[in-house]
Amino acid sequence: MGMFDWFSRRARPERAILGGLSRCQAVVEFGPDGVIRSANERFLAALGCRADAVLGMPHARFIQNDDEERLWRGVGRGEPMTGTFRAIGPGGQVAWLHGSYLPLSDGDSRVSSVMMYAVDVTSEHLRSLDLAQRLADAGRGQAVVEFSLDGMLLAANDAFLELMGYRSDELLGRHHSMFVDEAESRSDAYIAFWRRLRSGLHDAALYRRLGRNGRVVWLQATYNPVFDAHGRPVKIVKYAIAIDADAAHRPAPDLQDVMELGDHPDTLSMDAAIEAALAARQLQGGTPVAGGSE
Fold this sequence. Notes:
Number of strands: 11
Number of domains: 2
CATH topology of the largest domain: Beta-Lactamase
Pfam family, one: PAS_3
Number of helices: 10
Shape: elongated
Largest sheet: 6 strands, antiparallel
Protein name: PAS domain-containing protein
Structural class: alpha+beta
């Protein structure tokens, strides 16, 4: 078999692979100077423009990067570069692209062109921003704390710190078990509680927790797994409101009382408030609601 036949056989599957990528991803070819040579329909659709609006234009005209010089210096050395980039079309349409820049070399090992293969992740990015905003809004009226999947404290807002009597630097990096009795932290129920959260299950109840110096704090709370773009849990966010210790000796609050517990800008916040009212009603008999020991 001659050399030409070897290259011909090798080229066919590679062309098929590249053709398949072009059908499902945004693909752009740049010269080594960063000027656009060609772009497929998916890239043009993401930017809301026609090919004649981008061909011959520099990379920086459309794709924003924190370090443009570093990007092209790297691909100029033949190094692939990967990341998520903000792209702006000629008409102002914004898209977020996650992809890779792959330098291609000629026979002299010099970079002759750079191919960008990217997935349009605009909708996922906007959902992430919306979730972040809703979490921030919910935190204004409640105690909010974030845990890793193994229970290590990652962040806490001022309301939580004040409620538990700690400074931020005293809590970050410590385990959730510091807020429960030692015997409870070793119990099967507590271990199962974190196993459920790690698996992506939500948990809501009235919980007995320990603040500074062992002070008992009753919290009506929701533990909410947060998921990545692939649906995998990545951390746990807890929203909580304090229940007074003498709640068992007061009349249970009605719906109006629930609405006055604080700001409730989203469904999770309202759920926590409603459950707080139900918990207080059940506490009249002196019996904590299910899950309260976890």
